[in-house]
Amino acid sequence: MEWGMANRLAQLIQPDGHALFLPVDHGYFQGPTRKLEEPGKTVKPLLPYADALFITRGVLRSSIDPAKTKPVILRVSGGSSVVGKDLANEGITTSMEEAIRLNVSAVGISIFVGTDYEKESLLNLAKLVDEGERYGIPVMAVTAVGRELEKRDARYLALASRIAAELGARVVKTYWCENFEKVSQGCPVPVVMAGGPRVDTELEVFEFVYDGMQKGAIGVNLGRNIWQNDFPVAMIKALRAIIHQKATPKEAHEIFSNAKNSKGS
Ligand code: 5RP
């Protein structure tokens, strides 16, 4: 692997081989998502605990201080919305030139396997990988499910993740699911887990993240279950302990409970 590519991946994946990416890109298709209305304010207290931000260029430029930030994974796909005809109908929204100008560590793109736009999204990924490899910029592929949340099972996610890796993604973002080892074992590049819509309790989040880590994920790209929580800083501290300090769900819950009672949580 060339130096630039290796260096960028090392900015994202920490020396322990694990990673906590904080996604705040949701507005690119769903507008001012709850608790992300002012992304700069949401991100600021969480930033010290994140290894990287997953973000669009518009929010990066408008809301993130370039002197006080973390490595950036730039969301470069889009073009459809929750009120439009089909969320899967995405294109590439941001050029590699712009990614370089913004000094990003990686770019991220969604693929929509099994939809009417499967081919377009996979060819978009392949093209982005070609460009990224030219400049040493890793591509993170997002195995998107759109509104079809029931697609989050091992058979589908293993298929989509493997296809993303085959097309050259350096990292794959997918969802946690039962039998997650089938996803991670079938994917020859590092896999991170998204959270999806907020779940009922903090413990459920700690349990699925822990389970996924035991079964081969290298970490998370987890948004709403952090910043839509009433205690987002406590939440990210607890998740960081699972990802980087091997905390169990019970230990993470103790960290959450202690942190939520402290100032600025
Ligand atoms: C939105 C995304 C998000 O980055 C991803 O879904 C992770 O966020 P969350 O944990 O809130 O699901 O790709 O398209």
What does this protein structure show overall?
The structure is a single chain. The chain is α/β, with parallel strands linked by helices. The protein has one domain: Alpha-Beta Barrel (TIM Barrel). The protein contains 12 helices and 10 strands. The strands form 2 sheets. An 8-stranded parallel barrel has the order 1-2-3-6-7-8-9-10, surrounded by 6 helices. A two-stranded antiparallel ribbon has the order 4-5. α9 links the parallel β9 and β10. Ribulose-5-phosphate (5RP) binds next to α10. The site of ribulose-5-phosphate has 13 residues, from α10.
Ions, cofactors and other bound molecules:
ribulose-5-phosphate
Biggest beta sheet attributes: 8 strands, parallel, barrel
Instruction: Specify Rg, calculated over alpha carbons.
Output: 17 Å
Tell me the structural class.
Answer: alpha/beta
Q: Rough shape?
A: globular
Beta-strand proportion: 15-25%
What is the total number of structural domains?
1
> For the residues shown, what is the average pLDDT?
96
Q: Quick one: how many beta strands?
A: 10
The quaternary structure here is single chain
CATH class: Alpha Beta
Helix percentage range: 40-55%
Which sequence of SSEs, written as H and E, runs from N to C? HEHHEHEEEHEHEHEHEHEHHH
CATH 4th-level superfamily:
Aldolase class I
Number of helices: 12
Strand order of the largest sheet: 1-2-3-6-7-8-9-10
CATH architecture: Alpha-Beta Barrel
- CA-CA gap between termini: 40 Å
Q: pLDDT under 50 segments (min length 5)?
A: none
CATH topological fold name: TIM Barrel
